[in-house]
Amino acid sequence: MGEVLLSVIVPVYNIEDCLERCVNSIRSQTERNLEILLVDDGSTDGSGALCDRLAKEDRRIRVFHKENGGSSSARNLGIERARGEWLGFVDSDDWIDPEMYALLLQEAAGRGADIAQASRDEIDEDGNRRPDVCAPPEAVTFCPAEDFLRELLLHRGDCSFCTKLVRRSLFVGKRFPEGRLNEDFRLLVEMLSEGAGVCILPQQMYHVFYRLGSNTRKKDPDDFSRVFLDIVDNADFVEELVGRRYPQLKAEAVRFGLFQRLDYLLHIPIGRMTSKDPFYRNVIRYLRRHVRDTLTNPWLSSKNRVYLLLLTAAPKTVRKAHARLRK
Q: With contact defined as beta carbons under 8 Å apart, do 76 and 171 qualify?
């Protein structure tokens, strides 16, 4: 494995307080044959200068400064400039264990996998560990593409590219969608549609720094992140893909579409729930077309069914009641 170069891409934007911890965790990897690409996405604090200083300390670090375009734009630039056969991604406020990439390379090579995934945990601002988002397997597991897609549709799989090591060839003709959130899901589904299975390690070696105020974790409950629009668009995308590529997963794909719309409706500001909003109007139409699926789909919980049926019948009334419960 020593002959294989690994490229680790880190998008950087106004993250001066966390960046050094992140980069040092990559520099400390037991797999030494790697390069670190720091893509400064138009930072306005001292992050760009910190990138340059870190590059002077370690010649494996390369820095690219660009105008602000978002995380996907920064990642895509990193993909274009990467020299490695394998690509990894680390968010600049997170950190990784020293042996993560060595173990991922070892398992990917041993099992002939194009994607290897570490398990993860989440640490809050006070240093407390949060409940696991995805349950780690008990042992190293190879998950064929169809099985992994099924886990994603049931919200049991990890779609993040940060926990993964991906063979460069899978990015040929593919990039992260720019100007969107939930972008990892979209790109990973595209790779799975071509039959790329995933080797999953049980060790929780990727550490997510969970803090309020990010794109998807707003402090103000009235904020409406565009992620709730993108998750619905991605549900439509994957439902169409399943119809072409994995028709045996139709029930799971419909469940996913219903669940994503439920999430959207439980977060949309009441003032936006109007027939003049075409996105909202289409969400309600979907629910009304799938009342039978809401009643019979085996992958929905009883609570999901009740909320979906109520929102289908009286969306504003239910949304107002839910808003009061959240306060």
A: no
Give how far the C-alpha of residue 86 lies from the chain's centroid of Cα atoms, to the nearest Å. Answer: 19
Q: How far apart are alpha carbons 54 and 57 in whole angstroms?
A: 5
Determine if the pTM surpasses 0.85.
yes
Tell me the C-alpha distance between 135 and 120, whole Å: 9
The set of residues, in sequence order, having a beta carbon less than 8 Å from that of 327 and lying 6+ positions away, is 221
- Bridge partners of 62, per DSSP, are 37
Whether 293 shows a pLDDT value over 50: the answer reads yes
β-pairing, 6-12 vs 86-89, is parallel
Residue with the two structure tokens 């969107």: 180
Beta strands in the chain (DSSP E): 6-12, 34-41, 61-66, 86-89, 95-96, 115-124, 141-143, 164-167, 198-210
- Torsion sign (Cα): 164, 168, 170, 171: positive
CA distances from 46 to 126, 195, 200 (A): 24, 42, 37
Q: How far apart are CA 203 and CA 118, in angstroms?
A: 6
**DSSP assignments along 96-110, one per residue:** E-TTHHHHHHHHHHH
Q: Please, is 117 exposed, middle or buried when counting C-beta atoms within 10 Å of its C-beta (0-12, 13-18, 19+)?
A: buried
pLDDT digits (tens, 9 = 90+) for 164-202: 999 999 999 999 999 999 999 999 999 999 998 999 999
